[in-house]
Amino acid sequence: MNLTAESHRVPLSDGNSIPLLGLGTYADPQKTPKGSCLESVKIAIDTGYRHIDGAFVYYNEHEVGQAIREKIAEGRIKREDIFYCGKLWNTCHPPELVRPTLEKTLKILQLDYVDLYIIELPMAFKAMEACKDAGLAKSIGVSNFNRRQLEMILNKPGLKYKPVSNQVECHPYFTQPKLLEFCRQHNIVIVGYSPLGTSRDETWVNVSSPPLLKDPVLNAIGKKYNKTAAQVALRFSIQRGVVVIPKSFNPQRIRENFQIFDFCLTEKEMKEIEALNKNVRYVELLMWHSACFMEDGLERKTPKTLDKMYIAPFPQLRNFTRHPTFAASSCMHPR
């Protein structure tokens, strides 16, 4: 695979393509200064990023959209150059809420479509297919699906479009070899979040886990190529065909994370890094307990009535219902 800063897209099963390196944009809305995401996305686009990963519940899609539109207005990019991935929040999965929620995201972004729209947890998929048919999403995928859950979707009667991607935690300490192989067999691209082992935020992370970027193997390989451990970890993933979306609002790190196309790990080095796998999951998904349901006989734990839906995982997300665009008809109701 010949990867360059200008050309590092991989094909998706529906005929579209996705850049292997993207910018993650999650940040705690209570702790992040306004405008931070806007400036970071603009810096990323100027650096060469063409893949931006965002979400309805990150509370900053308006800044992402503004950055994209400003760069289009400058003539720096065209809309078709940018790959934007949005996510359907887990209390908005009843079929009647899927399209309205996506339309709200598009209204905030002030864009006509998203390039990829994904389900955060095992939820309804049929309504996502309708969004693709309507041109609101170029591709549709899933997130945090294990093999059994993927098989549920793939074997679903009347399936029109299979998911093109599965966004999961993936990094040298959690390489997901079995899931990666299964997805390869079914032409599903793995998108790895927390590819650098994520932050040490106790609300998200098992902070007792060893910090990935202090690993001596990654640092020794980095020294050989005059690269950081982070750059080595990212290069490892993209050489496996795993899309990575490291989050950073630090201009220097945004630029450093993009400098992974001027070196190549040897087969021996790839095996050395693969051997680091500890099956360590940094992001503990127990916080996502507020909804876990699927339609058509699959598991359903959250009622469809809007007044019973809430956002228990993140106390700070209770403020999302105050968003000026969402306040009148938000599908996210605090408990």
UniProtKB/TrEMBL annotation:
Domain NADP-dependent oxidoreductase: 21-277
GO molecular-function terms, A-Z: oxidoreductase activity
Entries under Pfam families matching the protein: Aldo_ket_red
Coiled coil: none
Residue stretches spanning the membrane: none
Residues of the site described as Lowers pKa of active site Tyr: K87
Active-site residues, as the UniProt record annotates them: Y58 (proton donor)
Signal peptide interval: none
PANTHER family the record matches: ALDO/KETO REDUCTASE
Family the entry assigns: Belongs to the aldo/keto reductase family.
Protein name: Aldo-keto reductase family 1 member D1
The organism of origin for this protein: Falco tinnunculus (Common kestrel)
